[in-house]
Amino acid sequence: MDVNEFDFDLPEELIAQTPLKTRTNSRLLVVDKKTKAISDRMFPDLIEALSPGDCLVLNDTKVMPARLLGEKVETKAVIELLLLKQLEGDCWETLVKPAKRVKIGTEVSFGDGKLTAICTAVQPQGGRIFEFRYSGVFYELLEELGTMPLPPYIKERLEDADRYQTVYAKQIGSAAAPTAGLHFSEQLLSEIEAKGVKIVYITLHVGLGTFRPVSASSVEDHQMHAEYYQVTEEAAHTLASARENGGNIIAVGTTSARTLETIYSDHGAFVAASGWTSIFIYPGYKYQAIDGLLTNFHLPKSTLVMLVSALIGKEALMDAYAHAIKERYRFFSFGDAMFIRP
Fold first, then answer.
1. Looking at residue 45, which CATH number applies to its domain?
2. Is the previous residue joined to 98 through a cis bond, with omega within 30 degrees of 0?
3. Are residue 244 and residue 297 in the same domain, yes or no?
4. pTM surpassing 0.85?
């Protein structure tokens, strides 16, 4: 399958640069999974599309202030690190700019030496392994010295860092936000629960794969990077009960979808589990865990476009995206949402 089959022309002005003042003011493009019918709604209308007994699954990961700006101890050259994944102890997988200046043994200082890091391994495409050295609590230093790691297509400065966190973010560990959840307010979630919809929280820490484009020309040749997930006993029980009683399982975001499909692929049921997933979902994949999906609009030729295509079909997805572009929907992290209705 050619990666170019998932390409489309997106006017640059449709890439949302800043979040809306009110989270729930986003637009919502509803696509019926069976009929492929499209309708233009507002995000709070999601309540009407959900039924009592359905289960809404949210990723409660919290974004780290993972972007660090420092300098090489030897030359004072400016170095930028993006923390992606904690490996063991104080060793982290990172992306580095400019990577050509960082070799094994390079030492980088942050905050006038409050935090230092030594490169211990070189990886492809700007990847580096660093071992950090510090006094005190690492995450407290990160809060002091780091900034939010916004995607490269966002050029505007983020005034309020909380707008790149979901209102239910709890488990710190992500290098990027699960952006489909940014549209929810606490009040809207309460209203959804009041309708009889079960809300379940799972965790997947968004990592390296989010920042890496598909470089292979064939979809099947692309390799996903592993990300850590966790599903609790309570979450698994609620999911299993909803499925048993005929409720729809609605994943909020591709991260929730990938987590649930990993669990179901490995165990054939909703069970408590944790570990690392590198599941790659593209057309031809048969969904087992989820019935519907709430998601943002994604980059051309991205693995996320492929994942959504696997749920409704590539032609239906491209039709929906063409409609969204024509109707001037806002795209990507701070953009509008699409709901694939069961």
1. 3.40.1780.10
2. yes
3. yes
4. yes
